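Re: beginner question about structure tokens

> Can someone show what the tokenized structure looks like for a real chain? I only ever see the sequence side.

Sure, here's an example I had lying around. Input first:
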Amino acid sequence: MGAAVGGLAGHLDGFVRAVREAGIPVGISQAVDAAEILTVVDLLDREQLRHGLAAVLLQRAAQRQTYDVLFDLWWPLGDRPAADAAADGSAEGGESTLDVPDDAALADLMRAELLRLLTDGDPEELRRFAREAVDQLGQGQPTPSGQSYFSYRVMRALSPDTLVAQLLAGLLGDAGRGGLAEQVARQTVRDRLAAFKSAVEAEVRRRTASEKGRDRVAKNAVRPLADQVDFLRAQAADLAELRRAVTPLARRLAVRLSARRRLGREGRLDFRKTVRASLGTGGVPVVTHHRPRKVHKPELVVLCDVSGSVAGFSHFTLMLTQALREHFSGVRAFAFVDSTDEVTRFFRPGADVADAIARIGREAQVVAYDGHSDYGTAFDVFADRWASAVGPKTSLLVLGDGRTNYRQAGVPVLAELVRRARSAHWLNPEPRRLWGSGDSAADRYGEVIDMVECRNAAQLTEFVTTL
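And the corresponding structure tokens:
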């Protein structure tokens, strides 16, 4: 009994460690709570265990997908005895439970069975069928390390997306097409197809993990969390998730800047007034007097590289610019490729970010020559046309990878802008180890401006909190 409890505790420790390594912060108190969960849930009820551990280990809904993948690897569906499997028509490996005349008819017969199960909508039966589908249709060529399974082979053989019309007919019945009933039916079909695909992928991961080890599979199966996706590699789905993270990030920056304005309104000690007031108390300075501090209105100038090499990064930073515009009127945005143009007009409060970015590509004068990044020319144009935009009240924020295509870097012009600004920072989406390599002038820029590595939203959040 003690050995079983110790083995379960060790298994939970490995699972918690995997969750932490995937980028989900799990503290000691949360790990203790997870151990407590094992004593209050039914360990034979896998879904109850899933939700119980999620309740104490996760802080954000965006972490759930990563968590579910890891949970399926560490707490897989257990194999049942052969007698039980035969009783409900399922099997793990070996011969198919479907009575088919030959292998050619297997896929058609299983496709018909899938149609029935999708129509019925029993999630447990659908998961059972997914296990058998992987066993019968997902096998690839054996490798020296063991048998290989692939979800795409199952999907290619069953083609579940082609069953939509039949599923709609089965769900709608005599109700007919159109109206709310069809919308509900279509959403139900999408949800059930997604559940089946997810079950197939989970079963493939489970089988692969049993052959090659959970840790190895987890590294390939778990996608980075949205705030840890490199801006330069972000896909459309990643940008959609990042967009939801921008608003609270901008709000946090707004609160910090506002707090700086509220605190310390009293300036330096006014010695003359303090001494004069002390004459009434025998020369003891009971009350001190201070000169009033000049409270500056926060101004922010954003200078952003929007060339193709940093498209994902510029997309995100322009979203941040739009969010900041919602909080401050003193935000001016400038974009450049091989020339510079002010793009503040595209970021009106309430404007759609995607539309604003599209308009920058169509209307902004950011390309004057060949469309390749030219930082030197871009800085020159900015300094010539908008020199007054940067002053002692301005925070300057430069966004780009600092790759000049072996053209003039314009370091002296940037140094002058930094000198005139109240503060200046450069956010670079490339890893620090690449600064100065090839055509990168990041190391040279770093000599005149605070160069910050900002490859993902997590690093950007860290920068904002320390600003």
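Each token stands for a local structural state, so reading them left to right follows the chain. The two ends are 54 Å apart (CA to CA).
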